[in-house]
Write a structure and sequence with these properties.
single chain; about 325 residues; 11 helices
Length: about 325
């Protein structure tokens, strides 16, 4: 397949390297020192004792890469404005565009079952509907990722947990489709898990549990994931988790996600710094809207009381705004 990874940073770089090594015609949209390193030396992925050096087409100008069979957008939601400005040259009439991001996606209300309550106002995730118009709702594919990575240096990605690389993909209305099957086949052939799902919003909320009730607490404390094993922080995360489960259920998504699975004594707590904390540390625009504020908007639209999540929201927004990394 001709696959473009739009925004080949940590997660995108991992997937681009694996897909290229599996024989796909892979191109990436990147910029700056990362782009120059990839052009000069290729894209390097370190995963345990495995090293992949992939030769991929790389540019900061999508027009250089041409129409694709599929596009994986691995930009963070805070960077989607750049997507709307540049993605059109990558799109054929039916090119699927999978939005691989954390939190609530801008397209959440598109294809939503009438059996579920309507989504709240999510216009801040796509101001003016620019992404919807540019990409076209018929091209949208939902995607949820579980894969911890970071950029060691320009052009070099480390996959921190080599046996945990999963990308769920699904249509916004959850119907089976040939393009979803083609994507899953390509991902699996590249060593990327892609389990079948009949409810992409279930996967969105399930991943959101980790970001909303764990990663945000890491941001508030300034500590890696292992801070969640301390009794006071563990209690905070559990309270946030209970509230988040109630919000999801109020919107028709009943999660099999017991708090002990997330924050129990048998959980292995790593030294990983979640992406929202990495962004804060490095002064990059933060995914406050999709990870924190949109879920709280779901709570308010359903009339669910969420005092813990409200407190987390206020602190995260204040921290990000104070550094100029988010505009309320």
């Amino acid at each position: 397949m001709r696959i473009c990874v739009y925004g080949a940073g940590a997660i995108g770089g991992n997937f681009a390297a694996r897909l290229a090594a599996a024989g796909n015609d892979v191109s990436i949209v990147a910029r700056g020192a990362h782009l120059e390193a990839i052009r000069g030396k290729g894209l390097t992925l370190l995963a345990g004792d495995k090293k992949i050096v992939a030769k991929v087409k790389a540019s900061d100008r999508p027009a250089d890469l041409g129409p694709q069979d599929a596009v994986l957008v691995t930009l963070k939601s805070s960077g989607h404005h750049a997507l709307a400005e540049g993605i059109e040259p990558l799109l054929g009439p039916d090119t699927p565009v999978a939005f691989v991001q954390n939190g609530i996606p801008w397209w959440y209300g598109h294809g939503l079952s009438k059996d579920r309550p309507p989504a709240p106002d999510l216009s801040r995730l796509d101001p003016g509907g620019t992404i919807a118009r540019t990409v076209g709702l018929h091209r949208v594919v939902g995607a949820v990722v579980s894969s911890p990575n970071h950029v060691i240096e320009p052009g070099v990605i480390e996959n921190e947990v080599p046996d945990r690389n999963i990308l769920w993909v699904g249509e916004p209305d959850d119907r089976p489709s040939p393009r979803i099957e083609a994507l899953r086949t390509a991902l699996k052939a590249a060593g990327i898990g892609s389990p079948a799902t009949t409810d992409i919003r279930y996967e969105i909320w399930h991943k959101l549990m980790a970001n909303l009730t764990g990663s945000t607490v890491c941001l508030v404390t300034g500590q890696p994931v292992h801070v969640q094993k301390t009794p006071l922080v563990n209690r905070l995360s559990r309270r946030a988790h209970a509230e988040a489960l109630a919000v999801a259920a109020a919107h028709g998504v009943v999660l099999d996600d017991h708090p002990d699975q997330r924050y129990g004594p048998k959980r292995v707590y790593t030294s990983h710094r979640p992406s929202i904390l990495q962004d804060y540390d490095l002064g990059r625009p933060m995914e406050i809207e999709s990870i924190v504020r949109a879920p709280v908007a779901f709570a308010r639209s359903a009339g669910v009381d969420t005092p813990t999540l409200d407190a987390i929201e206020s602190i995260c927004v204040t921290l990000a705004h104070a550094k100029g990394l988010y505009a309320p």
